[in-house]
Amino acid sequence: DSGVPIVSGLNIVISQMPNLYLEEVLRDVVGRIKDGKAFSDSLATHPEVFPQLYTAIINSGEVSGSLKITLTQLADFLEKEEEFRNSVRSALVYPAFVFGVGVLTVIALIVFVIPRLVNMFEDMGQVLPLPTKILIETSAVFNKYWIIIIASVAVIIFFLRRQYLSPQGRLAWDKLKLKLVVLGEITLKTEISRLMRTLSLLLSGGLSVVSSLDVASSIVGNRILKLEITQIKDDIIGGLSLSNSIKKFKLFPNFVTNIVTIGEETGRLEKSLMRIADDYERDVDRSLKSLARMLEPIIILGVGLVVGFIVLAMLLPIFQMNLIVK
User: Fold this and answer.
1) Are the CB atoms for 118 and 136 separated by under 8 Å?
2) With 90 as the cut, is the pLDDT of residue 119 above it?
3) Phi and psi for 34 in degrees, rounded to 5?
4) CA–CA separation, 15 vs 5, rounded Å?
5) Segment 28-39, tens digit of pLDDT
6) How far apart, in whole angstroms, are the C-alpha atoms of residue 233 and residue 241?
7) Rg (Cα) of the chain, in Å, rounded?
8) Element at 295 (helix H, strand E)
9) From the CB of residue 311, how many other CB atoms can be counted at a distance below 10 Å?
10) φ, ψ of residue 261 in degrees (nearest 5)
11) What pTM was computed for the model?
């Protein structure tokens, strides 16, 4: 925007780049541009850094002669995406921290504290209360078979991961995520928000609806939604409008189809798609914060009950002994 040529601009960026790998990538991009390649084609040689979405947007800016505007739009898009990811992380980090600390506390009590008290209980020579027996047996099993327990957990995780990475397993998992209570709606709105924001960016860059859907489907993580996008693209190639095609699929709520229809009728489809993305991002942010507020007391209560049971089971024999002495 300041009139600096693309190569000089990239060299300035390189001089300020703290990441050595990215610096190396950008030097290669500069070299390719000097050899006569287009900026978008040079970036496309490094898809691990610059995905298809980036190169498609930049290519449309080069073709239309509006590269400055396109780069600004892409930067705004990435900032919005980062803000959204940060809001998701911030909403879930505290409940996850509380749960992790609770689990570690329970494991520490079972592994290190309880075995030291077992000898003391045995020396008492009295009948132990049921909670204490349960606790001692649990600790004994864990300490005796901890290798088998860890190995079993590792095998289960490996099996589940293998199933998840298979096409059928990934499809089944993505279908399950959409059916979960509360989380299913959050997942769907997150995916639709990213899809609509990406489509808006691509369309404003001059790409056709079919090309935009083709590129946007690459950023959608849910396979069920990805399959529906493919079918929507085929419908549009066959002559249907975007709104009429979307209406055929249950994953897209009436709010989405209505806004898309209005956008097509008024000739402001890009802005309509951006409005859907903004509205759904706000909904997801509110839902995640509400979920986090609900999870915090539940996790704290659950951990408190488990720790309380352990402490009670350890203290009951001592109280029982005091009563006998009296």
Assistant:
1) yes
2) no
3) -65, -30
4) 16
5) 999 999 999 999
6) 10
7) 29
8) helix 269-325
9) 13
10) -60, -45
11) 0.73
